[in-house]
Design a protein that fits this description.
The chain is of the alpha/beta class. The chain has a 7-stranded mixed β-sheet. Strands 8-9-14-11-10 form a 5-stranded mixed β-sheet, with helices on both faces. A 5-stranded mixed β-barrel has the order 18-19-20-22-21. About 0% of the residues have low confidence.
């Protein structure tokens, strides 16, 4: 009967994880426990489940504070009371108003005031809480008269005395103050630990009314919750029957449109899926997704449906996905089956520029009270712990940086360092801040405040105070509304093609790009920079080694590139078998029959189901259970052992040798958690083809769109380089030709103002809007009269070449700018009517291309009008270049390369690196750096390097295995040659 317990979800206040709180209460034989975290219900469902497991009666409540001081506690009598408090907290989170010092007129909530904040009158449901150290006041006449409204109030914040200092550290972090300056009145008392009920009774045995009132609250607070009951919006139409009728009609229309009327396999598959959907009552879930997609299409937005949802023929027929399950033999059971314990979800991607419009539509259509994002919890991590605890102990930023860089407390006798280590170990993994799931949304039949309070982060969307796992446990199927820049690339490319070439392209018609001949040529050559998912150095190398020139090979490549598969050796084995299809043996005939397309190698998560089904004899539904059991993040040893024994028992019943079955199980277990499902890979492959088609046929429009959508794997300068290699003339931002993003005119690309350092968005919008409304700027003076711009920002524009159209040198423009500004003001005098501008004659003061390049380096981060190679002191560019590598196998060579990407890999002997470079011809090549080489010849940041290495060739793909390297110096900056 402890009515005021804090878990560590009382952020930066509580110190007790939920499981430890409940287990400690069980050990003390406590029969009733109230979780009353501060302004949150984040832990309630885990708390209820944990209490039920050990026979403790859970009470659900919350604590309300103002300026760190407790005002009152609410404990729900029932579901209605829980909802009341959720609505109360939600209102204050939304309005950002502090909680009042007096509780509202709750109807189904017990309210407990501390003695310090007790109002003069109390309603029937309101009580006064008395702590152990406050018993003496009960003998005072004033309080004697109110004993009939009092309860025992023993707060719990700590499990053991040594947790008190951790609590104080958390409070100091929360208040951003030194531990030595922490106000003790904002902290818990050192005795706020669990106490056995018998001991509480003994302390208050002279006040039986308090005991009786406390027991009354425990008895009458009966908030009960049923897990695993569906909480989603029940019907899309007015009934489940009409939902199924509408879904069936839409699916059959799509089936006829895609497959014609006589495709028996498709008809049977569709009916089978509809039967499962009906049995599991998922028709409304499909229809809500369909409705969102319909709205998206009407707005002209492009979407990608991916993940296991692409295993559904129904999803394909109603336009949610664009992957044909029949073509790729995709199991519907991987997405939805009658034995599946967790709900399915569709992963839907939109462009990062369109996603907010989709989210707004969902909130508006399904009701703000019924829609929310799943919550999430950011936790204290090692580096942040060192920084946060160090700050409250008074360490300076420089000391914290040093400590983080050399953090090894076992070798440090400094007492402060030891304290940071001591409390840091306790704090690691503690909740730190409530946040939101990146994409998961729920749509509820009842208002979401029936289940949780809502947070409102700066963007303003409602966020549930539980995470996606709790959402699943309590009966929600989430909708994953994602965004990615790859779709933004595609959308903007199509727009640019229409603007620049007057060609209208329906890129959503996947028959246009999938397996298209020129795209396949680019694919095989690894000419994929800028293309979603297939542009990384590792993926480009894999595509070249596979000589990938078709859709199905790309689907496989999209899965085997995954880290777990690659590191297990399966990727190398796949490459070998793909290039040598007659030089290997299948492990078993089932592998040949079922995995022949992938040379007997498990490449996709569905392959686990295939082997379980055809080798072990499990039904497809159980095969998916097997896959999930082995790939889940919270795999239990007991659960895995049960799965293993069942699999081996079934294999034995089929007459398979035990050793062979155990080896197959080992392969499944080592593989299951590390790859994509096939449908997910197929969805990525479709999008990759769409990008690749645009790159192959409209390279300039495509690369401008990539730059404007802030790129992908590489830095912007790599995409600028791609534009030059595709025949574009690239210019720095121009006052008359650039926008926020880059612009394309025929073959001329003018970079956007968004790339310029120290230019704010408001100023950029002003420059562009003024030009659009009043016409091009005619001169520097005209620009100054029309745009209110600080002198330093104007000088930045001059330095990057934004006034190149005037024909004046930068030095002339800089002098003119200062002369045109009022001597006594930092800004010019703005005039309603423009006055004639006095013209000046300047001496010729030409700047060199090298000076321009250094300007561009300073203000854009990379040279535009020159190459990095043009800035080197040396004229040496290499004994050979990339195009000669194939003719120098196993030879040692020297060349100069410009570093564009690095990837570290941990191996037994240390960290090795894979590098990607551009040579002086603009061609790409890759390098491998082993730990022993890096010890003597480490990387020294971006720039050009002189490289010495051996050329190794694997499957016609060359790589430079590095022996030595040294960063090459640039010329002295000529702008400061006289400094």
């Amino acid at each position: 009967m402890l009515l005021n317990c804090h878990s560590y979800y009382s952020l930066r206040f509580g110190t007790i994880p939920l499981a430890q709180l409940v287990n400690a209460a069980k050990d003390l034989k406590i029969t009733a426990l109230a979780l009353t975290d501060i302004h949150t219900f984040y832990g309630v469902y885990d708390f209820i489940r944990l209490c039920q497991q050990v026979g403790i009666h859970p009470l659900i409540g919350a604590e309300f504070r103002v300026d760190q001081q407790l005002q009152y506690i609410g404990i729900a009598k029932s579901q209605a009371g829980f909802t009341e408090m959720n609505e109360y907290i939600t209102h204050h989170n939304k309005t950002k108003q502090p909680f009042p010092k007096k509780a509202p007129a709750f109807e189904d909530v017990f309210v407990i005031y501390p003695l310090e904040n007790c109002p003069p009158t109390l309603a029937d449901h309101e009580y006064i809480g008395v702590k152990l150290n406050q018993r003496n006041v009960l003998y005072q006449e004033h309080w004697k008269q109110r004993i009939h409204k009092m309860v025992i109030l023993h707060p719990v914040t700590l499990l053991q005395p040594e947790d008190y200092e951790l609590h104080r550290i958390l409070q100091a972090i929360d208040q951003n103050t030194l531990l030595s300056k922490l106000d003790p009145n904002t902290c818990a008392a050192p005795n706020e630990m669990l106490v056995a009920e018998e001991e509480l009774y003994r302390h208050f045995e002279s006040f039986p009314e308090l005991i009786a009132n406390t027991q009354k609250i425990v008895t009458e607070a009966n908030f009960a919750f049923t897990f695993k009951k569906s909480r989603n919006k029940r019907c899309f139409t007015d009934s489940k029957a009409s939902d199924l009728q509408l879904l069936t009609s839409l699916a059959q229309e799509g089936l006829t449109r895609i497959y014609g009327g006589e495709h028996e396999q498709a008809k049977q598959r569709l009916q089978k899926e509809l039967d499962v959907i009906e049995k599991l009552s998922f028709a409304s879930y499909f229809l809500i997704i369909w409705d969102i997609i319909t709205y998206s299409t009407q707005r002209g937005f492009m979407h990608i449906g991916r993940g296991s949802g692409a295993n559904s023929l129904v999803g394909y027929c109603i336009g949610i996905t664009n992957v044909c399950p029949l073509e790729l033999d995709l199991y519907f059971e991987r997405f939805l089956n009658v034995n599946r314990k967790s709900p399915p979800d569709f992963d839907i991607d939109w462009s990062w520029t369109d996603r907010d419009a989709i989210i707004d539509y969902i909130f508006e259509t399904y009701g703000a009270e019924h829609v929310a994002f799943c919550g999430a919890m950011s936790t204290f991590k090692k580096r942040s712990i060192v920084r946060e605890i160090g700050k409250v102990f008074g360490l300076a930023k420089e000391e914290l940086d040093q400590l983080n860089n050399r953090y090894n407390p076992s070798n440090d006798n400094n007492s402060i360092v030891q304290l940071i280590h001591q409390y840091g170990q306790k704090l690691e993994g503690f909740p730190n801040q409530r946040t939101m799931h990146a994409c998961g949304m729920i749509i509820s039949e009842e208002p979401i405040t029936h289940f949780t309070a809502l947070d409102y982060p700066p963007k303003g969307y409602a966020v549930a105070q539980f995470d996606m796992h709790i959402a699943e446990d309590i009966g929600f199927e989430k909708f994953d509304i994602l965004s990615q820049r790859g779709i933004g690339h595609i959308n903007e490319t199509v727009e640019l093609i229409e603007q620049n070439q007057q060609i209208t392209l329906d890129i959503r018609d996947i028959s246009l790009s999938k397996n298209e001949a020129k795209s396949n040529t680019y694919l095989q050559a690894g000419n994929t920079i800028g293309c979603f998912y297939i542009e990384s150095p590792a993926m480009r190398g894999l595509l070249r080694k596979l000589k990938c020139n078709d859709y199905k090979t790309l689907v496989a490549a999209s899965s085997i590139i995954r880290p777990g598969v690659a590191q297990s050796g399966m990727m190398q084995e796949y490459i070998f078998r793909h290039n040598n299809p007659h030089q290997f043996d299948y492990f078993h005939e089932v592998f040949q029959d079922q995995l022949g397309e992938t040379y007997g190698i498990m490449v996709y998560q569905e392959d686990v189901i295939k082997i379980a089904l055809h080798y072990g004899g499990l039904p497809a539904e159980d095969g998916d259970i097997l896959r999930r059991a082995m790939s889940g993040k919270n795999r239990s040893k007991e659960g895995l052992q049960a799965v293993r024994e069942r699999f081996l028992t079934l294999c034995e019943a089929k007459g398979h040798p035990q050793a062979q079955s155990e080896e197959i199980y080992r392969q499944i277990e080592s593989f299951a958690g590390y790859s994509f499902c096939k449908a997910h890979s197929a969805s990525y492959a479709i999008e990759s083809y769409q990008s690749l088609y645009l790159k192959a046929h409209y390279p300039l429009e495509f690369i401008v769109a990539v730059i404007n959508n802030q790129g992908g794997f590489y830095r912007t300068e790599v995409y600028v380089h791609e534009a030059k290699m595709s025949g574009a003339r690239v210019f720095p931002p121009c006052i008359n030709r650039s926008n926020q993003g880059a612009t394309l005119r025929k073959r001329d690309i003018f970079l956007g103002f968004q790339l310029v350092k120290n230019l704010n968005t408001a100023l950029i919008e002003t420059i562009v809007t003024e030009r659009q409304q009043q016409g091009n700027y005619t001169s520097l003076a005209d620009f100054i009269q029309r745009v209110n711009i600080p002198l330093d920002a104007l000088e930045t524009l001059i330095f990057i070449g934004a006034f190149q159209f005037t024909g004046l040198q930068k030095n002339e423009l800089l002098i003119q700018a200062k002369l045109l500004y009022n001597k006594n003001k930092s800004n010019p005098t703005w005039q309603l009517l423009q006055e004639p501008i006095k013209t000046f004659t300047f001496p010729q003061m030409k700047r060199t291309k090298v000076e321009d390049a250094f300007d561009e380096l300073e203000y854009l981060g990379f040279p535009v009008t020159s190459s990095p190679f043009d800035l080197l002191q040396t004229k040496f560019r290499g004994e050979i270049t990339t195009k000669d590598f194939l003719y120098h196998k196993d030879k040692t060579t020297r060349l100069v390369g410009y570093l564009i990407a690095l990837k570290p890999i941990q191996i037994k002997s240390g960290v090795m690196y894979f590098g990607t470079w551009i040579d002086s011809n603009g061609d790409y090549f890759d390098s491998v750096h082993f730990p022993h080489s890096l010890q003597q010849y480490p990387f020294q940041g971006s720039g050009c390097y002189l490289l010495l290495g051996d050329i190794q060739i694997e499957y016609d793909v060359p790589t430079l295995h590095m022996l030595k390297m040294a960063k090459l110096p640039y010329r002295a900056d000529p702008r400061y040659v006289n400094s």
